[in-house]
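Let us work through a complete example step by step.
Step 1: write down the sequence.
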Amino acid sequence: MPIDFGTHSTSGETQDSRCDHCGLLPFVESLRRTTPLICQSEPMQAVMRRVARFAPSDASVVIHGESGTGKEVVARALHANSPRARKPFVAINVAALPPDLLESELFGHARGAFTGATQQKTGLFEAAHGGTLFLDEIAELPLALQAKLLRALQDGEVRRVGENQSFAVDARILCASHQDLREWVAQGRFRSDLFYRLKVLQLIIPPLRERKADIAPLADAFLRQFGQGEHRFSRSAMDLMQAYDWPGNVRELASAVQHALALAQTPLLQPEDLPEELTALNPEDNPWSLAAVEQAHIQKAIAYCRGNQAEAARLLGIGRNTLWRKLKTMT
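Step 2: predict the structure and record it as tokens.
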């Protein structure tokens, strides 16, 4: 997703200046051209400082983070700013393939290696030669394949399924997981020798709820990506987005922006355009929240108009249907 770093700042300080303060400006300029990232918040700027240090190395990196935090995006940043940038970046989601296909996908196979293998197949290791191989959800790799992966990393060679001859492959390995790999090692579900071979360097991507400063610029970036350029979020809608915890992280935010654009009746996106998960936040949890204040204001307007919702809508300066939707979320 081609999202620019942007220059959004609630304090009036631009993203460029904030990154320049920590010596990242040249690095950020290269990321503008190559990587879909937003690093307005200090936690993400800390991640990017580590990316800047890790990128020139050939050492393997384990990237930890909840689902939807952007682990592949960070992996692409590592590749795009490495000496291997002009070579392939090959990604595979280990959890997305059945175990019986993973070995062939990773290492390739010879013609006739098994039923249906009508021609030789190039594996992803070979496809990534000279570049970077990104193994997403590495925890899901079966133990038998973990042993073969370890051997390939140690020897720098792979062997296609159905062949006896190995051949050299040069690829930097990046991997990611939302699981605690140390815990999986302790449970015997992940090989300790492979874990330490992969975890030479480590990055931890914070969830979106811990980097609230990224929500507004990310939302603006998704608006540019999915919309026609004229849409923007109202202050009340953005307040709701800031109050929400985003369990699905950046992926959920992207979906919420698409939802709002699909329902929008005007270029100014309102709270009622957002998904129910956001509009159903319980105002009683925070009586000072915008939702709580809005509820109280609507109730006062309806009481003033003696229950006449049409009159209350006119008094509030909103449409009758808008008032009806707001009342529905309050019940």
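Step 3: interpret the result. The longest helix spans residues 249-263.
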